[in-house]
Amino acid sequence: HDWTLELSAAFVDQVRLYENETKMRGFLLACVGICVHHGVVKQGPSYAIDFILATVRHQDIDESIGCASALGWCSRTHLDVVLLKLQNLERNDYGRKSSGFLGFMKESRSESEAELLKITAVRCFARIASDAPPTELLLKVDKHIIRAIVYVLQTSKDVVVRQEGLEAIACVAKALWPERLQERYLLAGRPDLLKETLSQLKT
């Protein structure tokens, strides 16, 4: 167990050494998420998820995807913590102008930066829907995941953000397949979700 703690610490330390290698940074962020899932981050899941969200450079697609992968892994064992961190991200960063995510970013974000954040956020929700345990997912999907994705769709004019949002909805739909859940589940907000999806497809 000691060597796995050292390995996870090394992943965290290594990220800063790859300033110009976005693929490697994305890979390392995903590795940190895997370590969280296996419970081998000494400082705990909250610290590690804060590190992932504070480290990812949202303008770099490999890092954004790596962040989403990491949070997907984290959601397998720490879904509540992951959703709380993403809720904070929405509230403090792209949901309104503010001083920034948990104090890591002190200056107000520009509109373009906020749009990039939204892309990472919906990618994270897509991976969470795919990776989180089905029984836990059903308790959170309406209030937390669908609500957050629809919020992004309704507040963004950026084509890429909206495309990623629709992809996230598709991932949620696949996650709720009866064959996967071994039961039939109907989203509480299904009519509104269908209406918003069709509206996005027409624009």
How would you describe the overall organization of this protein?
The protein is mainly α and 203 residues long. It has 9 helices and no strands. It is globular and about 50 Å long.
How many helical stretches? 9
Briefly note the structural class of the backbone. Answer: mainly alpha
The largest β sheet comes out as: none
- Number of E-state strands: 0
Compressed to H and E, one letter per element, the order equals HHHHHHHHH
Throw out a few tags for this protein:
globular, single chain, 9 helices, mainly alpha, 203 residues
Please describe the topology of this protein.
Elements: H1 2-15, H2 22-37, H3 45-55, H4 61-94, H5 111-131, H6 134-155, H7 159-175, H8 178-181, H9 190-202
Helix pairs in contact: 1-2, 2-3, 2-4, 3-4, 4-5, 4-6, 5-6, 5-7, 6-7
Task: Offer a concise description of the structure.
The chain is an all-alpha fold and 203 residues long. It has helices at 2-15, 22-37, 45-55, 61-94, 111-131, 134-155, 159-175, 178-181, 190-202. It contains nine helices and no strands.
